[in-house]
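User: My advisor, Dr. K., asked me to get a structural model of this assembly before our group meeting. I'm new to this, so sorry if the format is off. These are the inputs:
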Amino acid sequence: MGKLVALTGNIAVATAMRQINPDVCAAYPITPSTQVMEQFSEYVADGLVDTELIATESEHSAMSACIGAAAAGGRVMTATSSQGLALMWEMLYIAAGMRFPITLACVNRALSAPINIHGDHSDSMGARDSGWIQIYAENAQEAYDNQIQTVRIAEHMDVRLPVMSCMDGFITSHAIDSLELLDDKTVRDFAGEYKATHPLLDVEHPVTYGALDLQDYFMEHKRAQAEAMKNSRKVILDVAREYKKLSGRGFEYFEEYYMDDAEIAIVILSSAAGTVKVVVDAMRAKGEKVGLLRPRVFRPFPYNELSDALSNVKAVAIMDRADSHGAEGGPLFMEFKSALYNNKKQPIMINKIFGLGGRDLMLPDIETVYRELRDIKNTGKIRTVSEYITVRGEEAAYGKA
Amino acid sequence: MAKLKDLIQKEPIMEGGHRMCLGCGAPIIVNLILRTSDAPVVLANATGCLEVASTIFPFTAWRAPWIHSAFENAAATASGIETMYRALRKKGKINKKINFVAFGGDGGTYDIGFQSLSGALERGHRFLYVCYDNGAYMNTGVQRSSSTPFGASTTTSPAGVVIQGKLQKRKDLTKIVVAHNIPYVAQASPHNWLDLTKKAEKAFSVDGPSFINVVSPCPPGWKSEAKDTIGLSKIAVDTCFWPLYEVENGKYTINYKPKEKLPIDAWLKPQGRFRHLFKPENAELLKQIQQDIDKEWEALQRLASL
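Assistant: The format is fine. Below is the predicted structure of the whole assembly, which you can bring to the meeting.
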């Protein structure tokens, strides 16, 4: 039904943005997300969209301009990565707290220091408490599909929260992948018309945004925001199902790969899941009951569904492409541990920190994790709860090896 | 040209009942400027006294659409609003003219909002940025900013035994804004309502960014009397600490030349933040302040003669 094309993840996302045709985009260049806005700027220059572009002088101003534009009363989009997301930090919380349905393509990249331009999840994981909905894509196809769905989720009247649509820097953003595009009209109809609520530009009905909010009201407003995040659970499912009808594609909260009878499993986000699938296929061919669970939605964290999906597994490795220094493991690990705490049936859980700064995760690395899980399943013993893998010894830190 | 009679008959956009201090210059400046607008206004406000004291949920002093989101981004926020206006106008979803105004204090304009202001001016958005310059972070308790005058005692540049207040001269933001080559830049004072409203009218009439820097006395920060606010802003102009001038498409015009330039003591003395400068051992500092003002006034006159 759709058109099969070969595009990078960035261009796929820019294409989705073109098809949606937002009113305003404000952005600042940063590797590896730059290409999204470069491509989109070409669409603007060629008149393929009606969008007004604001090429700001920083990501802080990009998100500030998005907030101003959203308050003014229209559909607003942006894209960023890493330090750019970090510079937006203050405004991320404000966008969510002011309930503006801004959508952001986050092309995941490591945060400095040391400086590194390649993919890991430290940027968006750091923003996990900012009040944004977060959706992670495995490949360019999913990045495209997610981008289209974000506007419907963000703008739903039960939600009205900003959405961050994440894909892995370079691995997904820059690699050319084959994917199927929907036609422009289908996307435009799916996205629908933006409905502004209390726009600033309605000068006949003046509103005040961002009033001082002290002890007597602040908590009620934060709870209303928390409720909106809860409401997004159903909206995310509804939108995913509607999109699947349209495209024949897509997942809901997560993807299960050979999980029905899996005894041991890996949980992993985004592009690395593709590599894990290759290992699962090979091990399944040898009769080993291995599986993969790939969360798609991280915020809101679908704790009931995800913990149920793991309840029959004996041992599971949660693999994090980001660390939370000083915690017992990475952000994904902590979420799963707390999600499973009230489950009667719990797998033994370990955590592996991998792929920081774009370090490759190879097939044998994944096999090693599955072998360790097999040992844990057989013996019930854990060697270590959380550790870095695919990492060399101390001497390498001094540049010696 | 606005007539005072007409201006005061307009409903104020910043309504009374707010919690700005007695004698604060900011609300006077805000209402004088907004009353001159020929079209409805949409406002963006940096964090600061004006924001904190004009809203407290569920109350607001604003009769026009107003947004505050953070400290350093009033200009960026206004640029987003103005851009959405253009986007929706292009699509025929909005037709009437709207003026866009951003307000910031000197902290939110000279310091933390400096980059955001510069970026928005360079991008050419049609909006007026108004800085109410009271010369320190008054909202958080009088900390020094890059607008604080040399010698002023603030809570982070206190006059002590070995240090006599702020050791650095203030940043000349108005001239930095001029360097952006925007259509209209001005310095104004609330005591001269006619000059201020004329400048606001010009600012609203240009098709691009405009900037007005307005001296804004702050009784708690200046350690001055509330009743002296208008008087002190007049003396700021008569001493040439705060000359009234405008720059239209690069052309400087001095709007007011005092017949007799007052010595700077006349402005410093009524303000407690400069009290230490009048100790006999600080006579040199006072001399230096006067010399700097004389030099800057001459430089401005040269620019205006070009």
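One thing worth pointing out at the meeting: The longest helix of chain A spans residues 218-247.

User: Perfect, thanks a lot.
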